[in-house]
């Protein structure tokens, strides 16, 4: 399952805080703050989707992530590669390097990363 844009924004706060009560999450948003009921509804949906869990303290819930940020984005990128690039990571990488306007320094850094991965594969 995937997250809506609003759920994704809320999930970013949960990943950053690691655990938080509803009030803590509302405080993360700039003014005008979203309604408490709106954030509670988002959290309920995110819980049903398996992205957040919670621990009860009386009537209060302390929310925490059930999905690691890295795992979530890895799944998203994999979906983009499958759906938009014929399941070809090479086509995706080619598009990424051409379309993102990387500087020469960033391309050199990317080359180092690729070289390191090549070395790992050879071992």
User: In the residues, how many domains can be counted?
Assistant: 2
Order of strands, widest sheet: 1-3-2
What sort of overall outline do the alpha carbons produce when their principal axes are compared?
Answer: elongated
SS summary, helix count: 6
CATH topology of the largest domain, what is it called?
Arc Repressor Mutant, subunit A
Q: What fraction of the residues are assigned to beta strands by DSSP? A: 5-15%
If you average the pLDDT, what whole number results? 93
CATH homologous superfamily (4th level) name of the largest domain = Winged helix-like DNA-binding domain superfamily/Winged helix DNA-binding domain
Radius of gyration: 19 Å
Order of helices and strands: HEHHEEHHH
Biggest pleated-sheet summary: 3 strands, antiparallel
Poorly predicted residue ranges: none
Helix/strand class = mainly alpha
Summarize the amount of helix as a percent range: 55-70%
Number of strands: 3
CA-CA gap between termini = 36 Å
CATH-level-2 architecture of the largest domain: Orthogonal Bundle
Oligomer: single chain
CATH class of the largest domain: Mainly Alpha
